[in-house]
Amino acid sequence: MAKITKLDDIVSLCKRRGFIFQSSEIYGGLASCYDYGPLGVELKNNVKKAWWKSVVQMRDDVVGLDCSILMHPLVWKASGHTDKFADLIAECKKCNTRSRVDHLNEQAEEHTEHIAIDKAMAAVQDLSNKVCPNCGTVGQFTDPMPFKLMFETQMGANVDDSMTMYLRPETAQGIFANFRNVLDTARVKLPFGIAQIGKSFRNEVTTKAFIFRTREFEQAELEFFCQPGTDEKWYEHWKQARFNWYVDLGLKKENLRFREHDADELAHYAKACVDVEYKFPFGSGDWQELEGIANRTDYDLRQHQRGMRTLNKWFENDQDLTNIELAGEAEDFHKGPLSYFDDEQKTRYIPYVIEPSAGIDRSTLAFLVDAYDEEEVRGETRNLLRFHPALAPVKAAVFPLVKRDGMPETAKNIYNNLKKYFNCFYDEKGAIGRRYRRQDEAGTPFCITVDGQTNEDNTVTVRDRDSMEQIRVSTDQLLNYLREKLEV
Ligand code: GAP
Asked: Ligand 1 pocket check: which of 259, 293, 361, 362 to mutate, most ligand atoms within 8 Å of Cβ?
């Protein structure tokens, strides 16, 4: 079990060490928005790098993409977001606080990110005994109403032809919209995937637990296209691959589990869905979603073919989405513009899609919480972050033991050489013990100290963060030694 049991402790560690700050703090802060500080940005970048390496770089069947956040409004009509991406809310008549209806249950298990609005409506219960989470008033709610989750903005300077646009609520749709482009240019053959990491935005009704649920967040999504009939095999493949990724990067296995969605919980497009959950040591419910892996069938590509057929109607309607119905599906939809010609089978079809969709901020939080440790060392508490080397914000710190006898110059030379290969830190201030402790708390795997012996035999001490063991390594072997240990 992680050693941190209160959210406040992780929030204060993150602030103290420059991992994560409240956004716009000098103006009193902006709710549910966060900024990553010097150590935080390195950690988060490393989480993204590790995902990209595992999902794109190490595979021959996945290519990458980086789409724009603003997309044609019809994308969101076709995907169903403009009509269905909403939470069912009710407003407390006493304090005017709006709450998600599905979160009003006393033992609400906040498993699902969102419940499809039609399902939420159908499941609506009597609110007369529900308690307002803000003021505690019982049963004084308005009738439930949908609250749209996409942020709207206007594009264009002219009032007459400015267009309502949406900040994307998921990165996935940019991948579907580029399916044809990738197919035509990247010499890919089914089965293959398209991966993307980027920001998404949702005007969440309830934000919570620090960076766990925010209104601006980053996703790492893969759409893996395959022949219908092989989808269940690929679903199992990605389920295991994604679970193993978290374990390989150091999350303790006992803090991870799968949760398969029940049939009545599945999104209308999904044939199956499983969440990878992490046992966060705070908040309600503990087990919370890190990532969802869904079998989205051929739903999205078919919907975008309908979207493409709606384009003329949209022009006729002054480029306005209001009151536009999505065009029906062509009879020979399986031969449409987003179909795939299978060379081996000599047939055309719309591929099925398996989608592992991970939250970068959420994973970063889980890696932080899981890595945190405290231990007693000679009567003092040592706080440390036992990050996997691939995730550690700083890989090695270099110190002169004292600021004389040429030690700073030698240490600086070593530092200048190492930093060409990985992120390093140089520190000559304060007692050596305190410098070690500072790096322990930042999660730096190795500290290198230049001391009196260095001048005599060209060796330095290398201290291991986890065991605190120190060994001597010759300066000309140092880079190789560290690269082997850090796997960089
Ligand atoms: N394309 C599928 C999709 O977006 P999702 O379950 O809504 O599925 C995927 O989101 C992942 O994105 C979640 O498992 C979570 O890690 C992350 N995520 C979703 N909403 C979030 C929010 N408001 N704040 C932080 N992360 C979020």
From this structure: 362
